Amino acid sequence: MRIAVIGGTGLIGTRLVTRLEADGHDVVVASRATGVNSYTGEGLAEALAGAETLVDVSNSDYLDEAAANEFFYGSTLNLLTYGAAAGVAHHVTLSVVGTDRLARTEGGYFAAKAAQERLVVQSGRPYSIVHATQFFEFIANIADAGTSRNLVRLSRALFQPMAADDVAAAVAATAVAPPLGRMVEFAGPERFQLEELVRRQLRLRNDLRDVVADPLARYFGTDLDERELLPGPDATIAPTRYEDWFAAGGRAYEPATAHPA
């Protein structure tokens, strides 16, 4: 199967490409680094030529609603339009568990992600939307976002993070299957409070910042209820536990701009 991976050089994209190629698929790696810009449309027609499936794991460099919405709207509209012209039979989008709830209550980045999902759903194109929980690789970025004067203040919210390799496996399995026409959730096997797991990771990395639970702390500019980041009861549970990921050499991801997932 010929599969175009948009954002194919990023954290999830690189893992997804490796997995799909190992399974014998013909993979087109599409990102600005390979001369393909989904927002401007540069190189997009060539990247999608002959593709049966398009997988969008790209992300915005901005967390504010206006800038994120501009990126996701323009990019997704281009992908749907160019994909239809190329005869793409399955449009797969990676998004975040809790996007719909957070978009309603907080707006911001999550409102932009929700708008992206609506474009896909309302396009009339065959699609699947994958919702994943936060990645282990982003825990250090969550700490940095909550740090002020060497003190990390974090919401009391619960979450079920997962390894980026498990996210890539979930997206790959969805991409090679028939379109679902709906959203499907994936989550890690363990539930933590944000401050609990962030403190554990900082200590394991000999980072001595103090971590405290603060009911007024915001998560990438967003107020959280305790359960807003948790998946629903039908979520598929990924196999990798945090301790096993860390023992295997898990490393923090360091993007130019931290993202909430």
From TrEMBL:
<protein>
    <submittedName>
        <fullName>NmrA family transcriptional regulator</fullName>
    </submittedName>
</protein>
<feature type="domain" description="NAD-dependent epimerase/dehydratase">
    <location>
        <begin position="3"/>
        <end position="73"/>
    </location>
</feature>
<dbReference type="InterPro" id="IPR051164">
    <property type="entry name" value="NmrA-like_oxidored"/>
</dbReference>
<dbReference type="InterPro" id="IPR036291">
    <property type="entry name" value="NAD(P)-bd_dom_sf"/>
</dbReference>
<dbReference type="Pfam" id="PF01370">
    <property type="entry name" value="Epimerase"/>
</dbReference>
<dbReference type="InterPro" id="IPR001509">
    <property type="entry name" value="Epimerase_deHydtase"/>
</dbReference>
<keyword id="KW-0521">NADP</keyword>
